């Protein structure tokens, strides 16, 4: 198990490049099961979660090649419709194979995902939507067993905006007989790019980037090649690193239109943010102003940047409030940040952050992916040395984060324990 040893390093400067978006690639990998033949994805980073998904697709019968920014998925021989517990328990996004397997093979058996460090995370809306499309769903021995001879179009209203339920339903509905309407659908960029991928494969979907999506069922899809969008959460993490630094940094290969809520909040906190077509330069504030955030579905402030923004507010000149409405229990990082001499109290789903002049290095433990990113940022600004253990969490979603940050002036060493 690796850990990071991080020395105080607030003099970042230069340019840092963003990789492809994990949370877009995961559903697109699952979507490629819908089209027999070889689909090719470019701009694919080296991440544990993508390797886990590749493993799952191989178990299902696909041939997956994954190397150096490229992935090919040949789903001609997909025949085994099961996502076993060992893989789903490692990565909840395995649930994304449910919709495509049901649509392509008429059956799927996927281990029921449990809770995780950021909350209980039910999948009830995935299952209700598939039932509305005509699937028969049974829960047996910890598995979701779904069957359908022929799915049919339906009018589906999601009680909450859900990225996963929207994408799973989209993927199931492409072969449904008739028309499916999704209401209160999620509008995250990861949903949009999955729609782009499905449409490129031949699907008939309208309403992208809105909460009302219509899918006209068709009979076949064909394999395609597509470049993956840049990771807005990785980009946002680097932008916050810039805001914590003493010098400007430029985040390259990003989509500024996916980052508007963060750009707005960084400006409110006193940073200057210079936005170009595919890059963003963050010029840090002399004094960080306290700034409140509330996480919301896109285009609101993303929950996946909540922990990282909290680190910035730890050093603000006053009191800030951070409220998470998406995952109300996503505050495991707070106790660790307080070990680094932050001053944060959590009441229900709101963190009250009293800004302090400095953080101090200590040993801390990563609990989930974004919490680990927050601890890395905090370790960089803390006086002295910070040790972050259990960094396998960060390797799930950031491709060699320490190498990227070290290139712009961070002092982070990976150590095997
Ligand atoms: C996706 O999770 C992301 N994961 C998460 O990123 C991200 O935090 C989340 O969307 C919100 O943006 C992937 O893309 C793999 P949801 P997902 O369904 O799809 C509730 C990261 O760090 N809900 O949009 O699972 C749910 O509990 C990860 O990269 C139900 O109640 O999230 C939450 O309150 C962590 N029933 C809200 O909806 C359901 O059936 C939104 O969750 C489904 C969800």
Question: Key features?
Answer:
alpha/beta, 417 residues, four-stranded mixed β-sheet, UDP-n-acetylglucosamine1-carboxyvinyl-transferase, Chain, 26% strand, 31% helix, 2 domains, binds ligand EPZ, elongated
CATH superfamily of the largest domain: Enolpyruvate transferase domain
Number of helices: 14
- How many extended strands? 24
Low-confidence stretches: none
Distance between the termini: 6 Å
Strand content: 25-35%
User: What structural category arises from helix and sheet content?
Assistant: alpha/beta
Global morphology: elongated
Proportion of residues in helical segments: 25-40%
Protein architecture, described:
- The protein is of the alpha/beta class and 417 residues long.
- It folds into two domains: 2-14 and 231-416, UDP-n-acetylglucosamine1-carboxyvinyl-transferase, Chain (Alpha-beta prism), CATH 3.65.10.10; 25-221, UDP-n-acetylglucosamine1-carboxyvinyl-transferase, Chain, CATH 3.65.10.10.
- It has 14 helices and 24 strands.
- The protein has helices at 22-31, 48-60, 85-88, 98-105, 124-132, 163-173, 189-200, 232-244, 260-268, 306-314, 332-339, 369-381, 392-395, 401-407; strands at residues 2-7, 14-17, 38-44, 63-67, 69-74, 82-83, 107-111, 136-140, 143-147, 155-157, 179-183, 204-206, 213-216, 225-227, 249-252, 272-275, 279-283, 293-295, 319-324, 343-347, 350-354, 363-365, 385-389, 411-416.
- It has a four-stranded mixed beta sheet with strand order 22-23-1-24, with helices on one face. A four-stranded mixed beta sheet has the order 2-15-17-16.
- Strand 16 and strand 17 form a beta hairpin.
- The longest helix is centred in the first third of the chain and has 13 residues, at 48-60.
- The radius of gyration is 21 Å and the shape is elongated.
- The model has no long low-confidence stretch (mean pLDDT 97).
- It binds ligand EPZ.
- Residues 23, 26, 93, 118, 121-126, 160, 162-165, 186, 190, 302-304, 326-327, 369-370, 397 line the site of ligand EPZ.
